[in-house]
TrEMBL record:
It is found in: Cytoplasm, Cytosol. The keyword Nucleotide-binding applies. This is Molybdopterin synthase sulfur carrier subunit. Acts as a sulfur carrier required for molybdopterin biosynthesis. Component of the molybdopterin synthase complex that catalyzes the conversion of precursor Z into molybdopterin by mediating the incorporation of 2 sulfur atoms into precursor Z to generate a dithiolene group. In the complex, serves as sulfur donor by being thiocarboxylated (-COSH) at its C-terminus by MOCS3. After interaction with MOCS2B, the sulfur is then transferred to precursor Z to form molybdopterin. CDD domains: Ubl_MoaD. GO terms for cellular component: molybdopterin adenylyltransferase complex; molybdopterin synthase complex. Keywords: Cytoplasm, Molybdenum cofactor biosynthesis, Nucleotide-binding, Phosphoprotein.
Length: 89
């Protein structure tokens, strides 16, 4: 099944911005994919992000999403925030 692609805005915070080397960018991804597949698309662009995979959380349209098999249906212009673990306590 071929799904159409859509352009979303990836926002990188704290450690993820350091690893990616950018704070935000527009990326083209399949319109329907799981949160884990979305992470894999981002890691293809920024392989250093793989270092934080076990701790990272997404926020899609400002709602938290854990990496896994949750299906996302993305709309053009959606914001996908990559939020690393918050250090300290």
């Amino acid at each position: 099944v071929v799904t159409s692609c859509t352009r979303v805005v990836a926002l990188y915070f704290a450690r993820s911005a350091e690893l990616a080397g950018v704070r935000s960018e527009i990326i083209s991804v399949p319109q329907q994919l799981t949160s884990l597949q979305l992470w894999e698309e981002i890691v293809k662009r920024h392989p250093r992000l793989a270092a934080i995979q076990d701790q990272v959380v997404f926020a899609v349209r400002q709602e938290y999403v854990l990496l896994g098999d949750q299906l996302l249906v993305l709309q053009s212009g959606d914001e996908v925030a990559i939020i690393p673990p918050i250090s300290g306590g």
